[in-house]
C-alpha cells in the first residue's frame, strides 16, 4: 500500500474539472457521520482509517468522501502516494474556487447595515489576499507532493491550512458571519489530510 505509483501515471485533476460542489458534498457527507458502505474502493477505507481514525482535524468519513470524489481513488493499485496527490489536487481546486467566490462577493457588495457590510468587506479582502497566496503556491506544492519531497510538501500544505483558518477566524474576531465557512473548513481538512497521507508514503 505504501509503494508509490509512478508520478507519470497520475493525471492531476485541474481546478476547472473539479467542482467546488463535490468538495462541499464531501464535507456534508462527513458531517453526517454516515456509515461507510461496502462500495468504497478496497484500498481507500483502510488508508482513511489509518490517517483519520485518530486525527484531530478530520475523520474517516471526510477522508473517504473527499478522496472518493476523484476517480483515481478507485484504482485497485492506489497507494498513500496516490491519495496524497489527490488530496493536494482537491485542495488546489477548492482554493481556486473559493478565491473566485470571494472575488464575486466583493463585486456584489455588502449585506446588512453599513457597519456590518464594511466589516464583511474588510474580512473578504483579507481572505482574498490569503487565498491568493494559497493559489499561487499550489503548483509548487502539488509538484512537491508528486515528487515525495515530504518536508517541502508538508510545509506548503501547512501554510495553506493556516491561511484558510486565518480567513475563517477573522470573521469571528470581527463578529461578522462568514460566507465561506464551508469552503474554509473543506480546505483546512484537505490540507491536513494530504499532510497525514504523506507520512505513510
Automatic annotation (TrEMBL):
Lineage of the organism: Eukaryota, Viridiplantae, Streptophyta, Embryophyta, Tracheophyta
Entry's Gene Ontology molecular function annotations: enzyme inhibitor activity
Protein species of origin: Paspalum notatum var. saurae
A GO cellular component entry from the record: extracellular region
Residue intervals passing through the bilayer: none
UniProt-listed PANTHER family: OS02G0537100 PROTEIN (PTHR35357), PECTINESTERASE INHIBITOR DOMAIN-CONTAINING PROTEIN (PTHR35357:SF23)
Residues annotated as domain Pectinesterase inhibitor: 40-197
Keywords carried by this UniProt record: Disulfide bond, Signal
Family: Belongs to the PMEI family.
Keyword Amino-acid biosynthesis: no
Signal peptide (from-to): 1-34
Xref: InterPro entries: Invertase/methylesterase_inhib, Pectinesterase_inhib_dom
Name of the protein in its database record: Pectinesterase inhibitor domain-containing protein
Keyword NADP annotated: no
